Amino acid sequence: MSESAGGPGEPEQDRSSLKIIVLVAALVLALIFYFLWLGRIAVELITSGDPAAVGLGIGVLILPLLGVWMVYSTIRSALDHQRLARRIRDEGLELDVSELPRRPSGRIERSAADELFSTVRKEWEADPDNWRVSYRLARAYDYAGDRGRARETMRRAVELEKLERG
After folding, report:
1. Is the pTM of this model over 0.85?
2. What is the chain's Cα-based Rg?
3. Coil vs helix vs strand at 91
């Protein structure tokens, strides 16, 4: 069995990624079926002519539209984040958390995560318009348990990276 040039462990990572892709594809297909089913029900209600049913049909029609938007935006964000993660890895700028102390659950101990965050925040303060530093800050927020700021900072990193590309 030959391994890729990246070294040991990558074939396992590829299989894991493939499993996730297959799972996401299956879930998206199930959602498409569900959205079509809801759409059919909405059309039946709207064409019934009864004012209450028409109102309900319009409400039911909104659900699949919202669902499609949510699925699209979630997948788009995931692909953007993966692109940034791949670029950061290729440039050797990932945060090294391998030596940080961990809880029995596997999460990084709070004090170590806070110290990592403090270090990365100083990098960001020196260059806040660099998507690489913003990406690292988002990851540090995540390790420190601040998911809201991690998402916000990751969105900024994605925007800055898009500006850099073109």
Report:
1. no
2. 22
3. coil
